[in-house]
């Protein structure tokens, strides 16, 4: 298996843009996915296949990919966006089909 | 409404066993991969296991191979996780999640619907 690396924390002021990165050697060959998790709640999918947004997710959430790094961007951050964010990718080797998560990034809205 | 509801968590001694269940509603259960994902107290998400729509393929994280077994009953819209030889490090909230993807050569996989989780505590 391989690893996905995220910064432990990111801080932004309300209305600013937050960027959370995720790095991994397999990311040029695999899609990335992003989940938001608020305290005491289950994760929620906010971005799939690098840059697609599920229905019901605000337009201020966007994703991008460049080489071995993917980025979750939250434009015009709101207080309600304060949460932990996890990137995820598929992990395959031969016939093995697994899943890997990044360590998570805590977004603080100042 | 699409919903996943986990049950079966609790306190168990090291070396003991526990069986988690997840009941799905609001979608065609037999058409989706399903997953278990756990989160230890204060830690990040860790994928545990996946199972294909018809149960013919199952995959596990290395740390649970040989101890945990994922299974499903499509007639009952139910997903299970049999956990044996439990260790303190298995203590976590266990989430059931609906999977989207395939296991072919262009493998991709993600989880678009999650339950609220059930708590497993392994302690003497």
What does this structure look like?
- The complex is a heterodimer of chains A (110) and B (124).
- Chain A is mainly β and 110 residues long.
- Chain A contains no helices and 9 strands.
- The mean pLDDT of chain A is 96.
- By secondary structure, chain B is mainly β.
- In chain B, strands 2, 4, 5, 6, 9, 10 and 11 form a 7-stranded mixed β-sheet that branches.
- The N and C termini of chain B lie far apart (40 Å).
- The chains are: A mainly beta (110), B mainly beta (124).
- At the A-B interface, strand 3, strand 7 and strand 8 of A face strand 5, strand 9 and strand 10 of B.
Biggest pleated-sheet summary of chain A: 6 strands, mixed
**In percent terms, what proportion of residues of chain B is strand?**
over 45%
Number of helices, counting only DSSP H or I runs of 4 residues or more of chain A: 0
The count of strands of chain A amounts to 9
Short overview:
The complex is a heterodimer of chains A (110) and B (124). Chain A is mainly beta. Chain A has strands spanning 9-12, 18-23, 32-37, 44-47, 61-66, 69-74, 83-93, 96-101, 105-109.
Detail the topology: elements first, then pairings.
The complex is a heterodimer of chains A (about 110) and B (about 120).
Chain A: E1 9-12, E2 18-23, E3 32-37, E4 44-47, E5 61-66, E6 69-74, E7 83-93, E8 96-101, E9 105-109
Parallel strand pairs in A: 1-9
Antiparallel strand pairs in A: 2-6, 3-4, 3-7, 5-6, 7-8, 7-9
Chain B: E1 3-7, E2 10-12, E3 18-25, E4 33-39, E5 45-51, E6 58-60, E7 68-73, E8 78-83, E9 92-102, E10 108-114, E11 118-122
Parallel strand pairs in B: 2-11
Antiparallel strand pairs in B: 1-3, 3-8, 4-5, 4-9, 5-6, 7-8, 9-10, 9-11
Task: Please supply descriptive tags for the structure shown above.
heterodimer; A: about 110 residues; mainly beta; six-stranded mixed beta sheet; three-stranded antiparallel beta sheet; 9 strands; about 0% helix; B: about 120 residues; seven-stranded mixed beta sheet; four-stranded antiparallel beta sheet; globular
